[in-house]
Amino acid sequence: MPSAPTSAGDSIPAECQLIEVRVSELRQLFNAIDPSPFHERDLDPRAEEFIVGWSRELSADTPLGLVVHLDRAAGRADEATMLRDAVHEFFGQRASEARRRLRELFRRGRISLAIAAAFLALATAIGDAVASYFDESRLAGVLREGLLIGGWVAMWRPLEVFLYDWWPIRAEARLFDRLSAMPVRIDYTQTVPTDAWRSDWPAQPAADAPAAARTTPRADRP
To answer: CB neighbours of 213 closer than 8 A, spacing ≥ 6?
Structure first.
């Protein structure tokens, strides 16, 4: 009888920085209430936080790799491929969401800039008109300076958008891009074949299910 494999999935190049996760079942990595098919299912928030948090501590110039230490023997032949596709799909969606947020931020920034520039021009014009009408008036000077300051204060929000707010979102999108392309490998901590993997795959085809799972005994049978 051939021995069970000790690992499955992508080969991870030596230059990759590893993110390592240990679970007893693959389903622990995914959101239990998400009804989507496995390859489209969201990661569990704690698993996402762990993976993203670890990746933030690593160099931004080196490719990443994910190793899942699984406390059971190998199960389905395609489970490593399905896990990789699910992880890539999830972080690919996160990258797309980050870029949508960035586009929305720039759109709001452009609108805010147009409004603020118009307000600054209007405030400057009104201030100049007041100063010229009330020549040599201290109150007119105060009003003019107040309108000018208010106009520049209105520029604060668009300047914040274009100087500071965009780059953390862009960095987040680039990080998710790296996570959506990283190789994924499963390392099995048990080599003795068991049926433990079946609890990880509740949607397995009927042909693959054990006979006991397909036959429900009735209490009223003799």
So the answer is: 198
Roughly how many angstroms between the first and final C-alpha of the chain, as a whole number?
40
* C-alpha pair distances (Å), 124 with each of 1, 112, 113, 131: 87, 18, 16, 10
Taking the C-alpha atoms of residue 212 and residue 20, their distance in angstroms, rounded to an integer, is: 36
In angstroms, the CA 4 to CA 48 distance is 29
Residues 70, 79: Cα–Cα separation, whole Å: 12
Give me the phi and psi of 207, to 5 degrees please: -65, -25
Rounded CA gap, 121 and 151, in Å? 8
**Entry pTM:** 0.77
Amino acid (one-letter) located at 36: S
What are the helix and strand counts (H, E) for the chain?
6, 4
Kindly report, residue by residue over 96-126, the tens digit of the pLDDT. Answer: 999 999 999 999 999 999 999 999 999 888 8
Strands annotated E in the chain: 7-9, 17-23, 64-70, 184-188
